[in-house]
Amino acid sequence: MTPRIAPVGDAAAILARLPDLLAVHAETRRNVLDGGLVDQDLKRLCALYLAEDDDVVRHADDPDEFDERERAALRWTHAVGWQTPADDTLWDALHANFSEPELVELGYFLHVTLGLMHLHRAFGLAAPPLPGKKAT
């Protein structure tokens, strides 16, 4: 059976107007959003925080809900998403839980995810899929 080409979603159709941009987005999706060094469950948690999921935001600092690595990632997500400078305490927690390549990837993931959320909203599209979820 010949493999079929997956349907093009609304966001991909918009990006396809600039083929080079669609190619860059596909590479970013493959290497950062859906792949990479940082665990997909952690990326999903951070994306939920960016989407202001009540349960995640409310319990972001709760050691009964999230482990030290998750709490550090959520504090990093807040700093990136709400443009607040990372203080020494946050950097200490980040370096205790992540390698520098992981921090760069997670920061870039947050940047791209937040940008996609804004772009989808501006175009009136459904929210972009979270990590670990296939686009519908």
**Main sheet characteristics:** none
Overall, the morphology is globular
Number of domains: 1
How many beta-strand segments? 0
Tell me the helix content.
Answer: 55-70%
Query: Termini, distance in Å?
Result: 23 Å
Tell me what the structure shows.
- This protein has 136 residues and is mostly helical.
- The protein has one domain (10-122).
- The protein has 7 helices and no strands.
- Helix 3 crosses helix 7.
Which key features would you list for this structure?
136 residues; mainly alpha; 0% strand
Task: Give a brief description.
With about 140 residues, this protein is mainly alpha-helical. The protein has one domain (about 10-120).
Blueprint (SSEs and pairs):
Blueprint (H helix, E strand, L loop, with lengths): L9 H6 L3 H15 L6 H11 L3 H6 L8 H14 L6 H10 L2 H23 L14
